[in-house]
Amino acid sequence: MAKQEDIFKNVISHAKEYGFIFPSSEIYDGLSAVYDYAQNGVELKKNIREYWWRAMVQMHENIVGLDAAILMHPTTWKASGHVDAFNDPLIDNKDSKKRYRADVLIEDYAEKLNQKAEKEIEKARARFGEAFDEQQYRTTNPRVMEYLSKKKEILERMAKSLDSGDLDDVKALIEELEIACPESGSKNWTEVRQFNLMFGTKLGASAENAMDLYLRPETAQGIFVNFLNVQKTGRMKIPFGIAQTGKAFRNEIVARQFIFRMREFEQMEMQFFVKPGEEIKWYEYWKETRLKWHQSLGLGNENYRFHDHEKLAHYANAAADIEFNFPFGFKELEGIHSRTDFDLKAHEQYSGKKLQYFDTEENKNYVPYVVETSVGLDRMFLAVFSKSLVEETLEDGTTRTVLRLPSVLAPTKAAVLPLVKKDGLPEIAKQIIDDLKWEFNVTYDEKDAVGRRYRRQDALGTPFCITVDHQTIEDQTVTLRHRDSMMQDRVKIDALRDIINENVSVKNWLLKAK
């Protein structure tokens, strides 16, 4: 556990030191669980967003985009259930005075049981080698079966209690498991109570006439209320999807783990409207499709897993998370939900407007069912960043810090370095930049010895370094250094564009998702 904590501390430190993420309003001592994306972070975040958008919208003829307003009519949130049901179960420790989400405390306990089972499996794998049958071991080894069975039992009981609103049993479960406060080790807990997560605000010029509004807690409702507008103006036929990226706001009392859980965050969501009765088929399709998209980035297939929900939201008939192995364990990265027709029917009821689709093949109107895919952009950033950051020992015994970002996402694709700041080398370097900057984000770096410049670009995640030296003047070739392998090639200047494009093009990376 200590090692995991150290890795996470290094992630947070590196993000600040190299201009990816800063604490918000830091000169005023910051604002809890609010962060600013710095000069390199904003580029990485933009590239992740673009990679998602290209895969979701540009690659699907029946999916279009939307950018709905953050402020919406307050009845929207009554219809969606957020006013009455958008709550987290919170519990306070009486000794440390710290507040926690009760379900997260229980889930963390269950994850520790899972980790114990995985350690037993890894020990057996090392002992038996190639002859090891993991599936058989999972289902026959008493210790592994006990860990996994207890985990399942705990999560099922928690889901049942939360679903029925039995918060007393949630507290009883915490006490039975002897879950202690992570801060103080105390087991002296208050009762569990529900807390609504929406931020309230006002709309109006005067306090007396101002309308009570909410900052949106999710982007999905902007899609639902525009369903008919998009369908008619776009002449969309079922099945079709509407995609959106944008900010959402939740008054997280237990915001933690850096940018994993924030009060202001960004979502990438797609709502896919289907014929009633076909929703589970499309639910399975999007589960498979979205997992392939994640795996296309090459962060390691072993770092992803599905988690099927024991407790379904009030609107869903099927739900699963794609979980990622963050430095603090497997946690939700993306949700895929079959939302039935709840949302459109609810907005029909509250607005008095018909939100139905006329199916020309069946010659009838119906309210479509919806399958949702929703991934947190900030969580995606953290997944990519944390898994890419590596401390590497080289053959000569020295170490280097390298940010092995997928090159398609890297903030800067190439750094151009004149070997020395004279003899016309800086001028050639800047000519190369002027040529490449039309297609790629490139940078110029002339400070320090070239070896130190390589290390700096490694830490920034730059896939290529292009060094201009005296031979460049003679034959128009440069040294092209590859970040991950540190291999160096001598290439023609006019070949640089094609080489870089081959490595960073969205097309080449997305083809891995097929």
TrEMBL record:
The keyword Aminoacyl-tRNA synthetase applies. It catalyses: tRNA(Gly) + glycine + ATP = glycyl-tRNA(Gly) + AMP + diphosphate. Substrate binds at R101, E218, F265, E266, Q267, M268, E269, E372, T373, S374, V375, G376. Gene3D superfamilies: 3.30.40.230, Anticodon-binding domain, Bira Bifunctional Protein, Domain 2. ATP binds at residues 250-252, 260-265, 332-333, 376-379. Belongs to the class-II aminoacyl-tRNA synthetase family. HAMAP family: Gly_tRNA_synth_B. Catalyzes the attachment of glycine to tRNA(Gly). This is Glycine--tRNA ligase.
